[in-house]
């Protein structure tokens, strides 16, 4: 399997998880509001389910942002720098981000293992809490991979001397 096909599969998975959870959260919130205001009864587990879905959306959305280079950043130095130097700045920034998300992956995996060992359950749904916590190491690992790929592309891209350094992420 080539890298482009693998990237397409992973991207589809990320977007499917995020899309499904966002739609499900919106529908669940809407239903719960209707139940509460029109029927004076609401579910006891809806708010908890929405909160946990948003946690998953946050971490997998972070990976989507890393793939599309949409994370917050100050790019004034990149805009002012010559293209070759801008490419280096962008690559180093991606490596620093990969280091941070790599550490987040490691420590969140440690936390998830603790949650598995203690067999914690959510208060309203009585769902194993590791299902919520596993979003952190999975999403962080995906972000780490995305940042490393972006760093590689930044360091290997050949910018024109008259243009700013833009990297095409679709070349995976």
Strand content: under 5%
Gyration radius from CA atoms, angstroms: 20 Å
Q: What's the N-to-C terminus distance?
A: 12 Å
Helix vs. strand class: mainly alpha
Helix segment count? Answer: 6
**DSSP strand count:** 0
Provide the domain count. Answer: 1
Mean pLDDT: 90
Quick one: overall form?
A: elongated
Helix proportion range: over 70%
* Biggest β-sheet strands, sense, barrel: none
Structure description:
The chain has 172 residues and is mainly α. It has one domain. It contains six helices and no strands. α1 packs antiparallel against α2, α2 packs parallel to α6 and α4 runs antiparallel to α6.
Features:
elongated, 172 residues, mainly alpha
Please render the helix and strand layout as text.
Layout (H helix, E strand, L loop, with lengths): L2 H36 L7 H22 L8 H5 L2 H36 L11 H4 L1 H22 L16
Helix pairs in contact: 1-2, 2-6, 4-6
């Amino acid at each position: 399997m080539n890298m482009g096909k693998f990237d397409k599969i992973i991207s589809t998975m990320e977007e499917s998880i995020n899309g499904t959870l966002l739609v499900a959260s919106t529908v669940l919130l809407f239903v719960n509001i209707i139940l509460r205001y029109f029927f004076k009864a609401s579910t006891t587990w809806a708010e908890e389910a929405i909160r946990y879905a948003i946690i998953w959306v946050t971490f997998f959305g972070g990976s989507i942002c890393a793939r599309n280079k949409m994370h917050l950043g100050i790019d004034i130095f990149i805009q002012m720098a010559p293209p070759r130097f801008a490419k280096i700045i962008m690559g180093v920034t991606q490596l620093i981000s990969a280091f941070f998300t790599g550490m987040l992956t490691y420590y969140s995996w440690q936390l998830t293992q603790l949650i598995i060992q203690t067999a914690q359950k959510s208060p309203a749904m009585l769902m194993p809490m590791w299902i919520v916590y596993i979003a952190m190491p999975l999403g962080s690992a995906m972000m780490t991979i995305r940042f490393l790929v972006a760093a590689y592309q930044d360091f290997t891209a050949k910018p024109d001397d008259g243009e700013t350094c833009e990297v095409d992420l679709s070349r995976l």
